[in-house]
Structures are given as structure tokens and as C-alpha cells.
Design brief:
heterodimer; A: mainly beta; 5-stranded mixed beta sheet; 4-stranded antiparallel beta sheet; 9 strands; about 45% strand; globular; B: mainly beta
Chain lengths: ~110, ~120
């Protein structure tokens, strides 16, 4: 079973920040938080990952709470092309673990 | 483009036929994964390879399914005697296990092969 829970859907106005929450209350010390998105009929696209510090790249920012039990993916200026299903995944990066366990994700709809 | 590639992108077949899909991972990645995704669900793990060794198979991978990665490069996934329940998107991903035991890269996914069984 997936170790994360996400709201099934969210709407966001174009040009506004999209804040996508993820709960991972049972996360362990070696587990990273990964975010992917999947645009209709394409493979999942990597967005960002982090352990405990906030992270930012050209696509998004990842805010992880101090207790690491939840995180938020922020798309600072959402565009129509950001409409997709967003998946939050926790995974250990040590060699003994490998597969991702996906939940059902959050379907983000960016509105014009 | 040096990303993960999959072929074909779409396959329509009749029930009972055999189908084979191919995945070419990112060239320096030594681990390769197959996932299956049905409508409205997240991808589900099927199997993975480290180099040419198949190290785990999910219980989702019935005996009609077989995967190979003969030289540790590309991989094939074959489904024999297809059933309508096999209709899904089949996704391939790859990453690297580094020398010190840490996964040094995230998994990168290919575009998928969408299978429709009539």
C-alpha cells in the first residue's frame, strides 16, 4: 500500500501558485519524498525530491514539515500545461529498496 | 534525446494473441523497472532488473507474463494469451545503483505502451 495520502483533485487559477499537499505520517528516517506528475497518456515525469530540507528547482519547490510527516509541492505560477495528476511517493534511497509505490495522486486542473 | 524509450507506443490485439514490448533505458542506468497502469490508478510495480538479473516479480506478474533483459541493456516484456484484463499502459523506468549502495539517480519513466485487448 502507498505510504502517502493526497487529495483526489484540486483546481488552480492560471498564473497563481498551486500548492499540492501530501501526508506521509509514517515516513522513516531514510525515506525521501519524491514528486512526479503525469500528463494524460504520458509516462510520469520527475519533478523534485527531498529528505528534510526545502528544495527548489526550475519546475517547483518542495516544502517538508519539520517532523517530516507532510509536504507541499508548490508550482509558483501555474499554467494550463501544468494540468496533470501529481503523485507524491516516499522511498528509501538505500540499495535494498527500489520500487515506487504509487497512490492515486492529485488531479490538478489549472483554469484559464 | 537520451531518455527512456518504449516501443510500440500503442498496441491493439485480439484476445489470445501474444504481444511483446521493448524498453530502452537511459544508457548508464543499471536498473530497469516495469510498471502497469490501469485507468484512474497510479502505476503498479511488476518487476525489476539489476543489470541482466531479474531480482523481483510482483504477484501481478502472472505466468503469462515474462520479462527479459539479456545483456543488461534493453528489456522486453511479453504477454502470452492476452486477456481483456491485460489492457493497460505498460511503463518502463530506469535508475542507477551506485557503487556504495546508494541509489544515485531518481527513476525516469518512458512514455509507455498502451495495450488494448479486444
Amino acid at each position: 500500500d502507498a505510504k502517502t495520502t493526497q487529495p483526489p483533485s484540486m483546481d488552480c487559477a492560471e498564473g497563481r501558485a498551486a500548492n499540492l499537499p501530501c501526508n506521509h505520517s509514517t515516513i522513516s528516517g531514510n525515506e525521501y519524498v519524491y514528486w512526479y506528475r503525469q500528463i494524460h497518456s504520458q509516462g510520469p515525469q520527475y519533478i523534485i525530491h527531498g529528505l528534510k530540507n526545502n528544495e527548489t528547482n526550475e519546475m517547483a519547490s518542495l516544502i517538508i514539515t519539520e517532523d517530516r510527516k507532510s509536504s507541499t509541492l508548490i508550482l509558483p505560477h501555474a499554467t494550463l500545461r501544468d494540468t496533470a495528476v501529481y503523485y507524491c511517493i516516499v522511498k528509501d534511497r538505500t540499495s535494498g529498496t527500489y520500487k515506487y509505490i504509487f497512490g492515486t495522486g492529485t488531479r490538478l486542473k489549472v483554469l484559464a | 534525446d537520451t531518455g527512456v524509450s518504449q516501443d510500440p507506443r500503442h498496441k491493439i490485439t485480439k484476445r489470445g494473441q501474444n504481444v511483446t514490448f521493448r524498453c530502452d533505458p537511459i544508457s548508464e542506468h543499471n536498473r530497469l523497472y516495469w510498471y502497469r497502469q490501469t485507468l484512474g490508478q497510479g502505476p503498479e510495480f511488476l518487476t525489476y532488473f539489476q543489470n541482466e538479473a531479474q531480482l523481483e516479480k510482483s504477484r501481478l506478474l502472472s505466468d503469462r507474463f515474462s520479462a527479459e533483459r539479456p545483456k543488461g541493456s534493453f528489456s522486453t516484456l511479453e504477454i502470452q494469451r492476452t486477456e481483456q484484463g491485460d489492457s493497460a499502459m505498460y511503463l518502463c523506468a530506469s535508475d542507477t545503483l551506485g557503487v556504495e549502495g546508494w541509489v544515485t539517480d531518481t527513476q525516469y519513466f518512458g512514455p509507455g505502451t498502451r495495450l488494448t485487448v479486444l
